[in-house]
Write a structure and sequence with these properties.
The protein is mainly alpha-helical and 314 residues long. The protein contains 16 helices and no strands.
């Protein structure tokens, strides 16, 4: 039996931060960076476009910008977790009937006042991590950062209850982070960036699909119209499977725009693992689905790594 969690302790904050969810923040940055690496060193157009940005003009990958993108993504993910924890507690969504992992405010691990302070601190830290990127990427990055912060709050307070959470995941865990990680390295936006961003967003959305499929009965009772509630039955499991397979095709297409098709072959390992996970989910329900949150995170992080390998192959 685990020991009690002391109120507002370091352990309590670590639990509230949900470290396993950081894979969802890392995946699009890895894929955006891999796209940029492939384009800078493989695509002949890069030499001309690179002249528009000092870092690319030097003919090398800017690891500092990449690291700042990753840091910003990680802090924003923690910030989103704190926001979700606090506002779900305020709305009474985290009750003893909750099937998912326990939440810090609802369990009394962190007081609401301390959580509000934590939200302010993590928001400011994310802004501090992203601020240097304005120097590299220009005013666009200020707008992007502001939108990330805004929708971090709107996801829990508005959009998730309207069943629009999947759309936000596609945009802010796919197209935006992949695209602007690429843009910071190259000063441009290409078709392969959009394809990789869409693929990444769909793969990460599998995590939300598991979460909403598990909670579909309680969500329906509270008027939360997620896709899992709207579809009903086992259709969300089929959609989960389709999301991962479509992500594989899109990521493969992003690679083959610049390289021979065999460079996308490593992605088949992700597809196989995703199919296996889909089959397991199809025979599971309720709280027993919780382990599949971690398995799904593992899967899409593997997708990012395999995508990076395909981009780096020579």
């Amino acid at each position: 039996m685990s020991s009690p969690v002391r109120v507002n302790s370091i352990r309590a904050w670590v639990l509230a931060a949900r470290p396993k969810t950081l894979a969802g923040a890392a995946t699009p940055v890895i894929m955006g960076g891999a796209c940029a690496w492939m384009w800078l060193y493989v695509n002949p157009e890069a030499e001309t476009a690179a002249a528009e940005m000092a870092v690319a003009a030097a003919g090398r990958f800017d690891w500092l910008s990449f690291a700042l993108c990753m840091l910003f993504a990680w802090i924003m993910q923690i910030d989103a977790n704190f926001v979700n924890d606090y506002f779900d507690f305020r709305k009474g969504g985290d009750t003893e009937r909750r099937l998912g992992p326990k939440r810090a405010c609802a369990q009394g691990w962190i007081t609401p006042r301390a959580m509000r302070a934590g939200i302010i601190v993590t928001t400011l830290l994310a802004c501090a991590a992203g601020a240097p990127l304005i120097w590299t990427g220009g005013p666009w990055m200020l707008t992007v950062g502001a939108l990330c912060v805004l929708f971090c709050f709107l996801y829990t307070t508005k959009f998730s209850r309207l069943g629009l959470g999947d759309l936000l995941v596609l945009v802010f865990f796919g197209i935006v982070p992949v695209g602007f990680t690429f843009y910071l390295q190259t000063g441009t936006w290409k078709l392969e960036t959009t394809l990789a961003g869409l693929g990444c967003g769909l793969a990460v959305d599998c995590l939300l699909m598991v979460n909403n499929y598990r909670d579909r009965a309680e969500d329906a009772a509270h008027g939360k119209r997620t896709i899992a509630v709207r579809l009903g039955g086992r259709w969300p499991v089929m959609l989960y499977c389709l999301l991962g397979l479509t992500a594989t095709l899109l990521a493969g297409a992003a690679i083959t725009l610049s390289k021979p098709a065999w460079h996308a072959a490593p992605l088949l390992l992700y597809a196989a693992l995703h199919l296996y996970t889909s089959r397991q989910i199809s025979t599971t329900d309720g709280a027993a689905l919780n382990p599949f949150l971690g398995k799904t995170s593992r899967n899409f992080l593997l997708l990012a790594i395999l995508f990076a390998a395909g981009c780096a192959l020579t």
